[in-house]
Amino acid sequence: MNSTRIAIIMVFVVCAFAWRVAAEERQQQAQQQPQQQVEPQTQPQIPQPVNIPQKGQIAAPGKGNAPMPKKAEADRNFDGKPDRTEYYDKDGNVTRIETDTNYDGKIDEWVEYKNGVVSKAEKDANGDGKPDTWLEY
Length: 137
Description:
Strand order of the largest sheet: 1-2-3-4-5-6
Number of domains: 2
Helix content: 10-25%
Distance between the termini: 69 Å
Mean pLDDT: 75
Structural class: alpha+beta
Number of strands: 6
Strand content: 15-25%
Low-confidence stretches: 55-59
Shape: elongated
């Protein structure tokens, strides 16, 4: 074997090793990040609307002619994309919450409410965009 071939093989081996080490580091970082889990014993708190009343606007929902939100979005990691969307009924009660808990740009948690109480929760644990865990209350 000539020295050029040996050098090419050595570069390939070093690159493959570096790729493997980087992949293992990414996997360890992903495992160390806290994961939100929906537990059947506890119910998520009902969030307050994200919108802030303007000066002169009545802040209490359902009083006077205060507008009721239909939808509220929050960008919790400040990347310019909503990570949590809350949907409300005509009385201002939350009906559904969709959340991107790992900030990858895809919704991975869905919680539905009936009469202000959690009725159903779903979670996508493997990132394929489909629920893997279902809880019904």
